Amino acid sequence: MNCSTCHAAITTSLFTVEATPCHSVRLLDDETTARTFPRGRVTLAHCARCGHVENPAFEEDAVRYDGRYEGSQLASPHFRRFATDLADRLGNRFDLSGRRVVEIGCGQGDFLELLVARTGCTAIGIDPAVRNPLRTSRLELIAGHFEEHEDRLAGADLVICRHTLEHIPQPRRFLERLRGALGDAPTPVFFDVPDRGRIFAEGAFWDVYYEHCCYFDEIALTNVFAAAGFARCESALSFHDQSLEFIAVPADPAAASPVVPSTPPAIAAPLFEATRAAWQDRLSGLGPRSLVLWGAGSKAVAFLASMTDHASVRCAVDINPRKQGSFLPGSGVAVLGPEALEAAPPEHVLIMNPAYRNEIERNLRDLGVTEATIWTVDDGA
Fold first, then answer.
1. Residue ranges of the alpha helices (H) in the chain?
2. Following DSSP, what letter does each residue of 356-367 receive, concatenated?
């Protein structure tokens, strides 16, 4: 295949998952549907020329973003504090009071509501997953794809695109279209994506999802934005170094020169396999239904998709009420609210995102779960 960013031939394969659910945060109402949910192949390929990593086996038609897609993390007080801080940082950085913001991939508009309240801006959110379109004097939420509403970017003072670019199989084409929609305006854009450096360094197979058809580090982001006609202004890691924030402005693509990537992350493959095998060994040594996963999102789905035996898993717990009562794609594991642990405390708890460990440990103490062994998914085995 050829790289979707620079069109060079890609020959380096890093990691493969033969069959993983095509959706990881889709709300499924029954166990049978969850267990038989469509699966797809992930094979991460690395471009030595520009540093881009993508899944050439990705099939766009296998993924559907609509009102059954539930990715919000704002039920967590810890994440809400981070989101509030981000809103404040953006408000100060771009002087957003009275300005106009457009967010591509806004989910249900939770962050935009926070941004409007914190900064005094007006905002438009565009996402095919919007369940309740609305239009007020300060906030508009549109159910649709960016390509259908790119005219709404006219006059924007800031464009935001958070945890969306990794879902787009042709990121350069998307960014070129965004660049064209901005025209001659010097509108800054703010993106954030999962940082692949941490994923590869940890062998974090639980962070490899079918929906994520692209994986970025700073060099790969710089190159794809430059190819599409943007110049990087600044970038930084955020949220426990799990995310990579990137600010760019429109520029002349003829003036851009690619950044030479570092050595291909070939070490990722053995690390992925080693962590996967270690966790499988640990789970196989646990008693039946003795383990509870805390966090019923993408990490839990990807983690279980790589395990051959789920007998030790009782359920997944999530504080997002919309997820409770659903079943995880692939494994069919039930998603329950935290209160389900009060009557029957588990022997073991696996926290799917270590960023929430302190918050979850407080919740477990409040529920009377004081004897359980607690792990985070990156604890090793």
1. 31-35, 77-94, 110-119, 171-182, 196-202, 218-228, 268-284, 298-305, 340-343, 357-366
2. GHHHHHHHHHHT
> What pTM, to 2 d.p., does this model score?
0.94
Is 292:350 a contact under the CB 8 Å cutoff?
Answer: yes
pLDDT at 70: 85
Q: For residues 260 and 362, which has the higher predicted lDDT (pLDDT)? A: 362
Mean pLDDT, rounded, for 274-300: 95
- How many other C-beta atoms are found inside a 10 Å radius of the C-beta of residue 277? 12
Tokens describing residue 310: 């789920």
For 279-285, what is the mean pLDDT?
A: 94
pLDDT above 60: residue 204: yes
Token reading at 335: 């998603």
Check whether 103 has a pLDDT greater than 80: yes
Task: Please state, in angstroms and rounded to a whole number, the distance separating the CA atoms of residues 378 and 359.
Answer: 17
The tokens describing 187, both together, are: 């509108």
Look up tokens 């599409």; give the residue. 228
- Average pLDDT of the segment spanning 188-214: 94
Contacting residues for 196 by C-beta, under 8 A, at least 6 apart: 53, 215, 216, 217, 220, 265
Q: Is 273 exposed, middle or buried (0-12, 13-18, 19+ CB in 10 A)?
A: middle
- The CA distances from residue 264 to 128, 171, 200, 246, 302, in Å, are 35, 20, 11, 22, 24
Residue 324: CB atoms within 10 A of its CB come to 18
Torsion angle, alpha carbons of 80, 353, 66, 22, to 10: 170
